[in-house]
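Progress against Task 2.4 (sequence-to-structure conversion) is shown through the following example record, which the project officer requested during the mid-term review.
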Amino acid sequence: MQRAGKGRTPRRPKKPSNIEKDPVGVYCRIRPLGGEDEECCVEMISSSTIQLHAPDGLKANRNGEYKETQYCFKKVFGIKTTQIELFEDVAKTLIEDLIHCKNGLLFTYGVTGSGKTYTMTGSPGEGGLLPRSLDMLFNSIGPFQAKRFVFKPDEKNGIEVQNQLDALLERQKRDSQQSVPKTPSSRQRVDPEFADMINPDQACKFEGVDEDCCYSVFVSYIEIYNNYIYDLLEDAPFDPIRPKPPQSKILREDQNHNMYVAGCTEVEVKSTEEAFDVFWKGQKKRRIANTELNRESSRSHSVFTVKLAQAPLDADGDHILQDKSQVNVSQLCLVDLAGSERTNRTRAEGSRLREAGNINQSLMTLRTCMEVLRENQMCGTNRMVPYRDSKVTHLFKNYFDGEGKVRMVVCVNPKAEDYEETLLVMRFAEMTQEVEVARPVDRPICGLTPGRRQRNQAFKDELSRRLEERGGPVNGDPVQLNQLIESLPPLPPCELSDPSDDQTLPRLMEVLERRYRIRQKMTEQFNQTANNMKFALQQFESQFSSKENVLHDQRSKLGEKDKVIANQRTEIERLEKKSKTLEYKIDILQKTTEMYEQDKRSLQQELESREQRLQKELAERRRMEQRMQGVVTDTKLKWERECERRVNAKQLELQNKLWVKDEKLKQLKAIVTENGGASGGPAEPPRKPERPSRERDRNVAQKRSASPTPLSGNVFKTRGGGQAVEFTDIETLKQEDPTAPSRKRRSGSGEGPAQTDDIENRPPVANISSSHGYQKRRRP
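Structure tokens generated for the chain above:
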């Protein structure tokens, strides 16, 4: 097996970490609405910011509210932006970098029907990015192009240089093949739709072209359909009986580890019209279809590659150096990505459904690669980027690894039906801007003296002028050469009619010697003139070199100034963005502060009203306490007096009853004594008992009324907002019967009114031994 014998592809050397990087340039272009009555969901706020509004009736979150989102780009192009304005801001610098041997990638991205193909291709009179890029390229390098077949592709993504003879043979071979008569249908003509793409007034040209180099342009056109690569410029033989499907191409890696399409057709073009012709030839083969959302929807990703080969002239400035190492090749890829779409809106079925699935899958792979690149750059991780999951990302992996400048134009359709898809596109664009790509390095400077082409042309012009002054041939003109020959002495007749003729040959020899002397003088004069010319050229070259050195110094200084200006502009743009962000944050903080101040004022008012109510309640409470204290005091005095009065009255009543009983007992004793005396001796006369005086009771009542026993209690709030008094010191009177049995107290019961017998509720007891039966109990 040959495959087993192949060696492994050498690993790409790691790039140093101090390489300068630039973020991916992301631009946004808004297409006009189809009708005036359509609802718009995209608003252009500034030259770098757009805002998305949720359409009416759309609920994007659970609360039924939708926040307006803003997205920033390097620049935003509104609906009134012309194609020339878009080209000057987006693609013009890419053409300049292409001429300076730097690669570039420009692709359009967006949903279906957002204007990607129009942005890339354009229409008659309004050429897009692709035709304007070709026009600027040929306007810049037109006078310095090499002849056909001097540069030749080597089918390994490289360019070879042929000598003049081989290139001439190649041209003759092509001319002989084109001399065969062709049918009118196969005759290649520029399509009328692309004949007047660009107005002559809008032509662009780059002035910084190296005149000491020769250039040649090669173009190729491929499409990626269902994750397969097809060559749109391939001239496959057509068989009407058994038509064969086009053969897909494969991706390979060249010796510089760059990806390319193996076997892809590369056509050498010499003018803008010829490049249009080749482009339109491939455009007719591109797969498009009619869907519910777009009448001409691209069903594949198209890649139009412009490859520029350049090589320096030799020291004489006349021929190209036959050194392959001196050939510099740069390319610009113009990619028109197919639009993402939802099948429930396009109602795709069958092959259309399969195409939509492959398109969405390739775009999802592109998004995944961007996410991994951003994560590796921002977090310092080393995750593998899944380039090989899709042909699109695998083909352009070198650009994201630092082989050129990358720019993306996001096309937006502002109609409300595309709102959700546009939201996803905006998120992808926002993430892509955070990816940084290594800045391409400048090409090595050739060691030959600059200005070789000009010196060679000046030498030819001076030589032609000198020859004109002397009547000599100019640029090998046969008429002037004949005039120079006629200026020499005429040759005598050279016929010999007699063998003894000795005059013809000497006469001929004399004329030839004179002509020889004249030619020697002319040669000496020509050599002298050539030496003078060389000396003048050397002086001119030294002066030119000194001026070139001064000019180079000035250019280096100017380049440094340009870098400083570019850095300052970048810093100004960054500060402007930061200022806008801070202004936006300040507005939000001011609104938040106003809301907080309103809340503060309302809370202060509520606090003041509550304090007023509290003060009123405290004053009412104090008044209630004072009133309750007065009522308690009055009630206490009243009940103390009433209790004292009742106790005194009861004591007096009991004393009266006791006195009556004592009288009766004394009378009974007297009777008993009389009876005993009658039987035993004389009896003593009975004494009349004294009635108890009330003076002592009055004194005791006065003392008690004068010094009443103070009662104590607690004041507390009730649930209804009022106040209540709880007495902790209660004086009760209890009358005990010494003859009655004692009552048992219930366990766990307090000393309340149920255990206390009030004097008013108990009946009087006849037999009371003394007044000490009245006891006082205080409740704790």
